C-alpha cells in the first residue's frame, strides 16, 4: 500500500486531468486497486488452480482500462 500511495502522490503532483473523466477515472482506478488488495489480504484463497488462472488472465482488463482511460491509439 505504501508503494501505491507514493505512486499516487507523485502522479497527482506531476499531472493534471484534461477533462473531468480523467479525474474521476483515476480515483475509480485507485479505489479498485485498494479493493483488490484488501480482498486478497482478507479473502479466502482460490478454490483451485483454474480459478487462479482465470483471475490472472482477467488482469488484462486493467490494461484495457488504462488504454481506454489514457486514449492511447486515438488520433
Structural notes for this entry:
This protein has two domains: 1-43; 47-75. It has four helices and no strands. It has helices at 2-14, 20-42, 49-58, 60-70.
State the major sheet.
none
Percent helix among the residues? over 70%
Q: Per DSSP, what share of the residues sits in E-state strands of 2 or more residues?
A: under 5%
Uncertain ranges: none
DSSP, total strands: 0
Distance between the termini: 35 Å
Arithmetic mean of pLDDT: 83
Order of SSEs = HHHH
Brief descriptors of the model:
single chain; mainly alpha; 2 domains; 4 helices; globular
State the gist of this model.
The chain has helices at residues 2-14, 20-42, 49-58, 60-70. With 75 residues, it is an all-alpha fold.
Set down the secondary structure blueprint.
Elements: H1 2-14, H2 20-42, H3 49-58, H4 60-70
Amino acid at each position: 500500500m505504501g508503494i501505491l500511495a507514493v505512486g499516487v502522490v507523485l502522479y497527482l503532483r506531476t499531472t493534471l486531468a484534461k477533462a473531468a473523466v480523467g479525474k474521476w477515472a483515476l480515483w475509480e482506478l485507485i479505489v479498485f486497486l485498494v479493493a483488490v488488495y484488501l480482498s486478497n489480504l482478507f479473502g479466502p484463497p482460490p478454490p483451485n488452480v483454474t480459478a487462479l488462472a482465470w483471475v490472472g488472465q482477467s488482469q488484462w482488463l486493467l490494461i484495457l482500462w488504462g488504454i481506454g482511460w489514457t486514449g492511447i491509439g486515438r488520433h
